[in-house]
Amino acid sequence: MNHIKHVAIIMDGNGRWGIKHKKSRNFGHKEGLKTVEKIIKSSIKNKIKYLTLFAFSTENWKRPKKEVNFLFSLLENFLLRKISSLNKQNIKLKIIGKKNFSKKMHKLLDISEKKTSKNNRLQINLALNYGSKSELVHSFNEINKDKKKINENDISKHLYTQNIPDPDLLIRTGNTQRLSNFLLWQLAYSEIFFEKKLWPDFNERDYKKILEKFKKIKRNYGNI
Ligand code: IPE
Ligand code: IPE
Ligand code: MG
Predict the structure, then answer these.
(1) Coil, helix or strand for 13?
(2) I need a labelling partner for 39 at 20 to 30 A (CA). Which of 9, 32, 67, 122 fits?
(3) Are 79 and 153 in contact (CB under 8 A)?
(4) Which residue ranges have their beta carbon within 6 Å of ligand 1?
């Protein structure tokens, strides 16, 4: 049985869910946040140590301003309402991505990270303004400062995910089979599960089913 330390999730399908229910895309985002809370709870129950959630990509800035603003206000309200409770549950929050947000958002993210930095039950890596290619460029530039020959360990050490083990599995909801610039380096040997359901419909049972399936997979890493 494989041990599960790190689960990464591309939470896709909120917009379509909102439209499908004859409401707005933003309504779908709001509903999707409920799934986030369920999956955090379930991750703790299943003793998972790292949960990486793709919340906003470097490409998502292309969306209408109204949607982008809504997503950030949703995050802001979530943190203001929930950070104390996350802290009490011994959850550590880490932001991965390029931190060029508004001053107010930057400050809130900083406070939230600092407040929870000593916690060790579950680490939530929130991928915000995250793009794997820009992360790799960032890593290479960091290494290049010492002008030395680069090895694999150097690259890993300078990614936003430094010190975080690679995901054991990736789940993408929303019936789309692509990586969308998410963790290209870190997913090199992860097991990938594409889930048909839209993110707001994804539930604890679906999650548990995937975790159980993962546990039984024979992981070869090139060996036999
Ligand atoms: C949520 O799903 C992912 C985010 C960027 C917040 P989408 O908003 O991409 O939903 P669909 O894929 O358009 O349905
Ligand atoms: C990936 O979903 C990004 C997040 C889940 C935050 P998208 O909906 O942005 O991906 P594409 O653009 O359809 O590939
Ligand atoms: Mg999408």
Answers:
(1) coil
(2) 67
(3) no
(4) 11-16, 56, 60, 71, 174
The enclosing domain of 80 has a CATH number of 3.40.1180.10
Nearest residue CA, atom 13 of ligand 1?
15
Residue 221 lies in a domain: no
| pLDDT tier at 146, thresholds 50, 70, 90 | confident
Name the residue range of residue 169's domain.
Answer: 6-215
Residues flanking ligand 2, CB < 6 Å = 10-12, 54-57, 59-60, 176, 178, 180
- Residue that is written with structure tokens 């793009």 in the block: 131
Which of 9, 19, 36, 60 to mutate to test ligand 2, by most ligand atoms within 8 A of the CB atom?
60
99 found inside a domain:
yes
Confidence band for 199, pLDDT divided at 50, 70 and 90? very high
220 domain-assigned: no
- As annotated, the active-site residues are 12, 60
Provide the strand spans (E) within 35-87.
50-57
Stretch 69-94: mean pLDDT: 98
| Residue 20 placed within a domain | yes
The two beta strands, 91-96 and 50-57, are unpaired
